[in-house]
Design a protein that fits this description.
Number of helices: 6
Strand order of the largest sheet: 3-2-1-4-5
Number of domains: 1
Structural class: alpha/beta
Largest sheet: 5 strands, mixed
């Protein structure tokens, strides 16, 4: 269903999945329904898949177009205010910037079943295609697997996971704060498998 919005890779230029740059991504939105609510913040960290070193950072606040449909609790949760968003950009511009970030990169996030429909709906709305691989990796699934080995992991909420794993979570519930926390959890879990 969603593959028609992703630019197809040339078969002779396919990249081994372990060599694709990882694009850790997180969104903040005006609510939980991707058909009704809007993206108001996007953060990305482009990471080398082998070293897990950050190569690029991207962060932008999005100008909401329909605040009348926003869930007031979501706006409060995301600390939205006209003053804090005074330098926000139009969504189309942000999507274009995102598309130029790292062509062919692999999106990775925490609970991507939330973020992915918002990104894909926004891209469709603007008649665009995504310049990324169509697969998404969900760190939350890796945490679920880890929970069978670490009995303290009783919930999948990112704040709980960071607390149990001893990972500092600065600026929770902001796009960049959660993106950095997701990368830290991924590094922790990958390190356990390597050592």
């Amino acid at each position: 269903m969603s593959s028609n919005i992703y630019k197809e890779q040339e078969p002779d230029k396919e990249i081994d999945l372990r060599e694709r740059p990882l694009v850790f991504i997180d969104l903040e939105t005006t609510g939980l329904d991707p058909m009704q609510h809007e993206i108001i913040e996007i953060a990305c960290l482009v990471v080398d898949s082998q070293t897990l070193e950050i190569q690029k950072e991207y962060h932008a606040k999005v100008q909401p177009e329909h605040l009348e449909t926003a869930d007031p609790k979501s706006l409060e949760y995301n600390k939205f205010s006209p003053e804090a968003w005074k330098e926000a950009k139009p969504l189309r511009q942000i999507l274009e910037e995102l598309n130029n970030l790292v062509p062919g990169g692999e999106f990775i996030g925490y609970n991507v079943s939330f973020d992915r429909p918002f990104i894909e709906n926004a891209v469709r709305k603007h008649g665009m295609m995504l310049n990324f691989d169509h697969h998404w990796i969900d760190v939350m699934s890796l945490v679920y697997l880890e929970s069978f080995f670490n009995k303290k992991l009783e919930r999948l909420r990112l704040t709980h996971v960071c607390e149990v794993l001893g990972i500092p979570l600065k600026e929770a519930h902001t796009a960049m704060g959660d993106t950095r926390a997701t990368l830290a959890v991924y590094r922790y879990l990958k390190g356990k498998r390597i050592t």
